[in-house]
Amino acid sequence: MTAMGLRGRAAGWLPFVLMVVVLVLAGPVRAQNFQGMLNRFIKAESLSGGVLLVSGPMGRSVVAAGMADSEKAVTMTPQSRFYVASVGKMATAVATLQLVQEGRLALSSPIAGLLGTMPTDRIANIKSATLEQVLTHTSGIPDYLNERFSDASSERPDHIWTAAESMAFARGEKPPGRPGQVYDYSNSNYVLLGQVVETADGTSFAESLKRRIFAPAGMTATTVGAGNFRDPTLAHGYTEEDGDVSTYSWTSITGDGPLVTTAEDLERFAFALFRDGRLLSPAMLKTMQTTTDLETAYAMGLEIWDDRWGTAYGHTGSYDGFESEVRYYPERQTVMVFLTNGNQLTDTDLLDKAAAAVFGGQ
Q1: What is the pLDDT of residues 256-272, one digit of tens each?
Q2: Which end of the chain is less congested by CB atoms within 10 angstroms, N or C?
């Protein structure tokens, strides 16, 4: 099933088997502090398992807890690969902005003319929305992730939905407003962007991301979709109601939530994008980070946090059986990643706790 930004049934209690792994530590950041933090969080939220990574000038720590595959008793490790849902929107946005940077696309271009042969009939606002509006969720294009899609995907849990098939569920849906006049988080926007990248590059979206994002960032454990479902490194996603629901997410290949990856690869992505300038020029990164007047907490494929530790850029993701969050604090050159193969019971944010532990009251 394709990813939705912040959605998923809350997972209930799952048999909790705690296993711990501590990888790398440098500086004043203490791995045991984060291990205990993760252990307590996984237990309190009744999650199957998770990985927490903190990396920056103050040190680096990667810890894991719980189970990656409860049926086969596979322990979670820092190398476990998770479906990360809407965290993948960052990669889709970067690939799109690379095409803008190359002069092959313009932010002012109507999205409909960039989609190749994809059918767009009866999809509200698609003929007038621009590429920039699609990137910032101000297009007014309705979300394909609705009850009709949910019912269809439940009937075909192993089906790999293409962009065209997914967008068919947006046909006839009522728009939230006119392009440029409303902010409405719609996964349709990023399905369309994946199609834009694929059309412009003349190759599959997966191949575009490999060339444009994974290779330059050094993301060797990242794939579009899970690929081999028997891969022992895959973290299986669980809900209380349905148990193992992994295949709904592992089959996602569209731009709204395409990635299966590790915490360490997301660390590499964050540093390559925000710190090292290996994915976008400084000017284009600034464009990516610029919000609209309609929503100051979302830019182009980026959520923005303004908290007591400063400004952070990244994204959250959630779908049945998986949740994820990535933050990068540019003033502190610090990246934080949390991945879990379950759904939280509360809105408690583990990365807030991690930031408090690293930065204190600064």
Answers
A1: 999 999 999 999 999 99
A2: C
Structural domain boundaries enclosing 252:
20-359
CB 174 within 8 A of CB 182: no
Please give the distance of CA 176 from its chain centroid, rounded to a whole number. 23
Where do the H-state alpha helices sit in the chain?
Answer: 31-44, 89-101, 131-135, 147-155, 163-167, 187-201, 205-209, 215-217, 246-250, 263-270, 282-288, 350-359
C-alpha closest to that of 187 among 315, 298, 85? 85
- Output the domain CATH number for residue 332: 3.40.710.10
DSSP designation for 10: P
346 burial level (CB within 10 Å; 0-12, 13-18, 19+): exposed
pLDDT digit string, tens, across residues 286-299? 999 999 999 999 99
User: Is 1 domain-assigned?
Assistant: no
DSSP 312-362: EEEEEEEETTEEEEEEEETTTTEEEEEEESS--SS---HHHHHHHHHHTT-
Q: What is the DSSP string of 200-220?
A: HHTS-HHHHHIIIIIHHHT-T
Give, in degrees to the nearest 5, the angle at Cα 7 between 209 and 303. Answer: 55
The answer as to whether 6 is a domain residue is no
Those residues with Cβ within 8 angstroms of residue 139's Cβ, 6 or more apart along the chain or in another chain = 111, 125, 126, 129, 130, 133, 179, 186, 189
**What is the number of structural domains in the chain?**
1
The pLDDT, as a whole number, for residue 167 is 98
Tell me whether residue 270 is in a domain.
Answer: yes
The structure's pTM equals: 0.92
